[in-house]
Design brief:
With 257 residues, this protein is of the alpha+beta class. It has helices spanning 47-50, 52-58, 62-80, 97-118, 133-141, 150-185, 197-200, 219-229; strands at residues 3-11, 31-35, 38-46, 86-87, 93-94, 121-130, 188-191, 205-215, 236-244.
């Protein structure tokens, strides 16, 4: 059985070996390949599963995709704890070590530039949600009497609409203030499109979905700043994720997550 090279990330040489128990996709241990002073972290994976055609089929299998993505992320997370990795896209596979070396050579200048810029920094994600006010309104209005007339009904509807718009405006203003504060604290920031609740499974309307590039040395202060902001506006929920490899700030596109 031929073994292909599944590459997770590129980084600078590590000061210590990879954890012996660090496994990647398909439960296969991760290893290092050094070339031109850079390291590709990879696993030797079976061709029958990771060659182009079977890989395409596997990527349509949600269970397989979920397990593979989790294993891929576990390796990147382990690297983030000890170095600054540049994560490659899920399913980045090469025929042999020579193919990996060629990839490093072709993109060496970009890799080095990104590593220099991101050294000692991590990415934090912040999302702000406004609660589903329709549910709250339904609960609040259950004891109320039914409208006596069409005019009363329209008056109630206008009142609910005005209150809903006011809450939405306050949430948007809160999100804007928080983003401005965090952007001033971080070295760089990226605004992403609001998450679709149906796809994400999160409750509430997503009014802020942003990533922030923060020095490791200031990460504790950054987290405290987010925690303090969470209590500022009733009906608003703040979610913090990270620290991650700096996915949003590599400045690289082709082949990078």
């Amino acid at each position: 059985m031929t073994a292909l090279r599944y590459v997770y990330a590129v980084c600078r040489p590590l000061s210590a070996p990879l954890q012996a128990q660090l496994t990647g996709v398909a439960g296969i241990p991760a290893r290092q390949l050094e070339h031109h002073g850079l390291i590709a972290v990879l696993s030797l994976v079976p061709e029958e599963d990771f060659a182009e055609e079977p890989l395409k089929e596997h990527l349509e299998d949600l269970d397989w995709l979920t397990a593979t993505a989790r294993a891929h992320q576990n390796v990147v997370d382990a690297l983030t704890g000890v170095t600054t990795p540049l994560p490659l896209r899920l399913g980045t596979v090469f025929r042999d070590d020579s193919g990996v070396r060629v990839m490093i050579e072709e993109r060496e200048e970009d890799f080095r530039h990104a590593l220099e810029r991101l050294e000692g920094r991590v990415e934090w994600g912040v999302k702000v949600y406004v609660e589903q006010e329709e549910e709250k309104e339904a609960v609040e209005e259950r004891p109320a009497a039914r409208p006596a007339s069409g005019r009363d009904y329209l008056r109630q509807r206008r009142r609910r609409t005005a209150a809903h718009e006011q809450r939405g405006q306050k949430a948007d203003e809160f999100a804007a203030r928080l983003h401005a504060a965090l952007s001033g604290y971080a070295e760089d920031a990226r605004l992403h499109a609001p998450q679709n609740a149906t796809l994400s499974g999160a409750t509430g309307r997503n009014v802020l979905n942003a990533s922030y590039l923060v020095p490791r040395s200031r990460s504790e202060e950054f987290v405290e700043l987010v925690d303090r902001a969470e209590d500022d506006t009733p009906g608003v929920r703040v979610e913090l994720t990270g620290p991650w490899a700096a996915y949003s700030f590599t400045g690289l596109t082709q082949g990078v997550a």
